[in-house]
């Protein structure tokens, strides 16, 4: 029951640290000294005072407030002399397109204002989804510093015509001499581009195409080729699953591109059944955090447990080792056999043999969840071919290299060999959207457009054919790689014409090109069934896997962070400041370590009195390579294992503020995400983390979350006074216990006329991915403040995803009966931190109908709107911060600085290109005011005005906010509760609905749905 759980954000909070106690009482952890902001009262005009501090000095009079309200900067608008036909000022245009940057693949919709893309949303008609990285990609378009602007040769600008002439001549010479040329690209997932590449190779028979992914899934693709005859990734229909067993596959993160939408579709408690998901893993991953049962196990033991599972299901006796989790393995074998075709096994080990074992188990189960026909065409990198390329380059066997959007000098573990081989080439050409080390080391550096400036097609799976179209004129002197290859193949056709002809001849089957382009996709009607006679001998595979697994005392699990991925967007400040869903740290990667290992090895994360977290440094050595990295003690990490994120430590071309973290690719030998025989040594120094896990505390209120088992959900009345899983708060009134919401100190607002907005958040469906956080950034011009400011609790996120650990705990009465002291009870709690349960809770302004903030504002800057939103009048706010002090949800942000046009904050709001992403419907705030979620009032008003202009009522479920639009799983639903047909109206009355801290009687317009977990008891 929720009432028997204690929720905590950090180990310090669990222990009852005095630092956390202090922080719970101080909302602003870093105050400025009086001398600094006031100076000498006789010479006040020479002081460094801010508006807010000046007002503190002179007193909050009406005249002072009026003075403050007149302080905004004056900006002059320049009207169109001749208005473009396709642009209406003030009205957004939306384009359907696709994103494929080699790591992230998505069918998306792009919002443009006056010709500027300003936001990306999922194309839900194409079953599209977005992650934090996809949402942030719109900002990477405007990265003036890192993007290539002109073609260069040897660092000198050269014209495209001279490029064609010189490289064309050199390619012909190499062809005549039969010298090898390699085209090295990331995964393209583009059928028309594949055809162009094949035509280029036909024209240049000495050329070869090699696909390289910085973070590899080559093991799964190789296993598919061996067992099913096609080199692709299998698909998983998790929405149909009854039992899901995963061995380190972070399928809610980046495994095979992610399956969060399908996973959540199979976990709807109102249908009466939910899939049962068990995760075996060493790192605490997003998938493990959302599992029904998480089994903590070292990477090597994952391999042995996988073999043991195969033995248990098939009755085989293949050699393996006993593990500490074999009892759970046997139980899962029973569950899988019981589920039959509704069961599935996945593994995230990038090992061909491990993948073959998982495939074999799925074949034994006859799993219909495991799909080898509608395959995934992403992550096509081939580790063996890449290794051979580096070897051949170093040996001087390659004469020419044409690379596209890859950076092996940064991301290869043996990058020095690649660099050495690059110097031996007769021709080195780098086509790239952004500058990087590989581009800088190549003789020719040729700029290609961003995907938002490009034409193209995509084929992420066998069903959906996606189209890519430009949403803005090219910002720089770029040329698409397809046009380049066509020209170098002697084909004068423009790529747009080639693409249109390809789609008509091979895909559209007589359908309209314009319709497909408008929709952004075209669905194929049939899929060819693979018919292949496998020659895989599974017993040999199992023995090879067993023999290759060399268990060691310490093992390293390399992974991709939800925010930064493979590091392709490392210069994107939205992603750098995005807090990791698990550790809540931003602007860093780190070595995650279990509590037990940290104590044994002497590592700690002391918390300062301002909420900042520090960490010790460790030297990690693997296969002769070593890195020095800070340590983060992580509850739920397997003993004897460490976790380290790839994608950080980029330096070349990045702004100084973005040069953070450690490059872990040097430890990524042979593309293996698991490395054995790891040596670790504590070294001197203290690292300063920017971590929000002990900030924004809720002052010890541990009843903000409600969690129920599926069994209780189905069989127990939610409001049952004793056993209910969604009991309301009770108060004593007239000597009787009554529901708190029946007693009011305030008069109700009149909600009978007009709209009344509510936001429903389903904690069962929320995976904590954070796409909504970045979407809110983009829609509402939320500023980036940098690592130093985040460290002292001054982040400006209007929406945060709180991550809570939980443990079962006795009530005080039960502890008394058992004779436990309070200290003993908390000591028991701490031992449970080894593998805590995890719950994510999106938290933004709750838009309370009885808002504490409105009561205390001395200048009425925050007030209640007729449609239910708690509104902010920025030009009235004088920065008293009373409202933030009076907010029990800690969701208001004080704007300490001018974040725009300020040299101290060298992010997107401080350069002309970066400002192009700003939403003109939302003001950029000046310093000294409170900011918070507005429930996207600009979007709701635009919807109302559109309906009014069209002479109709607002359609059912037409209202949206940025967060609800971006939510892949549908956890966030926004709408008008006065419209009974809106989905949110039913959700507000659902038996799972509750308000956070309902006993405070703030009556929020944000409603949460109780989280339901399948404990496999229903």
Automatic annotation (TrEMBL):
Transmembrane segments: none
Residues in 4Fe-4S ferredoxin-type domain copies: 757-787, 836-867, 868-897
Coiled coil residues, start to end: none
SUPFAM superfamilies on file: 4Fe-4S ferredoxins, ADC-like, Formate dehydrogenase/DMSO reductase, domains 1-3
Pfam families: Fer4_7
Annotated signal sequence range: none
Stated name of the protein: TAT-variant-translocated molybdopterin oxidoreductase
Species, as recorded: Polaribacter ponticola
Organism taxonomic ancestry: Bacteria, Pseudomonadati, Bacteroidota, Flavobacteriia, Flavobacteriales
């Amino acid at each position: 029951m929720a009432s028997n759980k204690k929720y905590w954000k950090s180990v310090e909070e669990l222990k009852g640290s005095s630092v956390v106690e202090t922080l719970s009482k101080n909302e602003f952890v870093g105050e400025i000294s009086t001398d600094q902001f006031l100076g000498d009262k006789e010479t006040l005009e020479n002081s460094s005072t801010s508006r807010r501090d000046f007002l503190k000095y002179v007193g909050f009079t009406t005249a002072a407030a009026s003075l403050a309200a007149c302080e905004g900067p004056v900006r002059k608008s320049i009207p169109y002399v001749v208005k473009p036909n396709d642009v209406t000022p003030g009205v957004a245009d939306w384009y359907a397109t696709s994103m494929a940057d080699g790591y992230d693949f998505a069918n998306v919709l792009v919002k443009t204002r006056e010709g500027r893309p300003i936001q990306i949303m999922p194309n839900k008609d194409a079953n599209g989804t977005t992650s934090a990285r996809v949402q942030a990609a719109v900002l990477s378009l405007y990265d003036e510093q890192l993007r290539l602007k002109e073609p260069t040769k040897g660092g000198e600008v050269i014209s495209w015509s001279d490029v064609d002439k010189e490289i064309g001549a050199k390619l012909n010479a190499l062809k005549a001499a039969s010298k090898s040329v390699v085209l090295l690209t990331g995964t393209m997932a583009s059928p028309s581009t594949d055809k162009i590449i094949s035509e280029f190779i036909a024209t240049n028979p000495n050329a070869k195409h090699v696909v390289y992914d910085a973070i590899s899934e080559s093991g799964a693709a190789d296993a598919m080729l061996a067992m099913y005859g096609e080199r692709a990734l299998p698909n998983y229909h998790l929405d149909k699953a009854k039992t899901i067993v995963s061995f380190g596959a972070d399928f809610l993160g980046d495994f095979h591109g992610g399956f969060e939408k399908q996973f959540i579709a199979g976990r709807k408690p109102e249908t009466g059944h939910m899939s049962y998901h068990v995760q075996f893993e060493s790192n605490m991953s997003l998938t493990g955090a959302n599992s029904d049962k998480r089994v903590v196990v070292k990477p090597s033991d994952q391999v042995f447990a996988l073999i043991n599972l195969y033995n248990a299901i098939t009755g085989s006796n293949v050699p393996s080792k006993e593990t500490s989790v074999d009892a759970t393995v046997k139980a899962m074998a029973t569950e899988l056999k019981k589920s039959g075709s509704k069961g599935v096994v996945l593994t995230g080990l990038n090992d061909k043999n491990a993948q073959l074992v998982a495939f074999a188990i799925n074949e034994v189960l006859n799993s219909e969840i495991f799909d080898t026909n509608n395959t995934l065409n992403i992550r096509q990198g081939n580790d063996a071919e890449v290794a051979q390329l580096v070897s051949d380059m170093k040996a001087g066997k390659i004469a020419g290299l044409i690379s596209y959007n890859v950076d092996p000098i940064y991301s290869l573990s043996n990058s020095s060999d690649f660099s050495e081989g690059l110097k031996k080439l007769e021709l080195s050409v780098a086509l790239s959207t952004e500058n990087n080390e590989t581009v800088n080391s190549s003789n020719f550096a040729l700029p290609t457009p961003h995907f938002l400036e490009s034409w193209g097609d995509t084929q992420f799976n066998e069903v959906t054919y996606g189209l890519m179209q430009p949403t803005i004129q090219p910002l720089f002197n770029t040329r698409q790689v397809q046009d380049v290859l066509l020209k170098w193949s002697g084909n004068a056709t423009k790529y747009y014409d080639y693409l249109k002809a390809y789609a008509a001849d091979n895909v559209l089957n007589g359908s309209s090109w314009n319709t497909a382009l408008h929709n952004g996709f075209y669905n194929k009607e049939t899929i060819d069934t693979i018919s292949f006679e496998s020659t895989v001998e599974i017993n040999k595979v199992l023995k090879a896997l067993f023999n290759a697994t060399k268990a060691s005392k310490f093992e390293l699990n390399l992974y991709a962070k939800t925010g930064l991925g493979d590091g392709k967007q490392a210069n994107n400040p939205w992603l750098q400041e995005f807090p990791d869903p698990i550790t809540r740290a931003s602007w860093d990667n780190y070595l995650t370590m279990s509590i037990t290992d940290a104590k044994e090895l002497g590592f700690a994360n002391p918390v300062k009195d301002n909420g900042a977290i520090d960490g010790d440094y460790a030297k990690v050595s693997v296969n002769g390579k070593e890195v020095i990295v800070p340590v983060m003690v992580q509850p739920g990490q397997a003993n004897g294992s460490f976790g380290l994120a790839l994608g950080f430590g980029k330096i070349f071309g990045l702004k100084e503020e973005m040069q953070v973290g450690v490059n872990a690719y040097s430890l990524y030998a042979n593309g293996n995400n698991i490395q054995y025989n790891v040596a670790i040594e504590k070294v001197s120094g203290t690292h300063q983390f920017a971590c929000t896990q002990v900030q924004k505390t809720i002052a010890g209120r541990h009843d903000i979350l409600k969690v129920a088992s599926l069994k209780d959900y189905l069989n127990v009345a939610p409001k049952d006074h004793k056993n209910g899983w969604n009991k309301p708060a009770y108060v004593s009134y007239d000597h009787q216990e009554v529901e708190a919401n029946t007693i009011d100190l305030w008069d109700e607002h009149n909600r009978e006329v007009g709209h009344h907005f509510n936001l429903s958040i389903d904690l069962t469906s929320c995976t904590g991915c954070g796409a909504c956080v970045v979407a809110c950034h983009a829609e509402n011009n939320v500023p980036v403040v940098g690592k130093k400011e985040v460290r002292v609790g001054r982040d400006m996120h209007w929406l945060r995803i709180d991550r809570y650990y939980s443990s079962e705990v006795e009530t005080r009465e039960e502890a008394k009966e058992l004779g436990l002291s309070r200290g003993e009870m908390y000591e028991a709690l701490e031992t449970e931190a080894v593998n805590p349960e995890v719950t994510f809770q999106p938290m933004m302004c709750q838009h309370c109908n009885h808002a504490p903030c409105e009561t205390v504002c001395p200048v009425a800057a925050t007030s209640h709107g007729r449609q239910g939103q708690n509104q902010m009048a920025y030009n009235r706010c004088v920065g008293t911060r009373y409202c933030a002090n009076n907010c029990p949800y800690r969701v208001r942000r004080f704007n300490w600085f001018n974040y725009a046009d300020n040299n101290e904050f060298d992010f997107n709001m401080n350069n002309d290109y970066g400002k192009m992403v700003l939403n003109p419907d939302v003001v950029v705030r000046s310093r000294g005011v409170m900011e918070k979620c507005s429930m996207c009032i600009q979007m709701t008003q635009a919807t109302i005005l559109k309906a009014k202009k069209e002479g109709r009522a607002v359609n059912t479920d037409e209202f949206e906010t940025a967060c609800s639009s971006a939510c892949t799983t549908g956890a966030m639903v926004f709408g008008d509760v006065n419209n009974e047909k809106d989905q949110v109206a039913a959700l507000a009355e659902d038996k799972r609905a509750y308000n956070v801290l309902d006993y405070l009687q703030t009556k929020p317009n944000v409603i949460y749905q109780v989280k339901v977990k399948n404990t496999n008891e229903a």
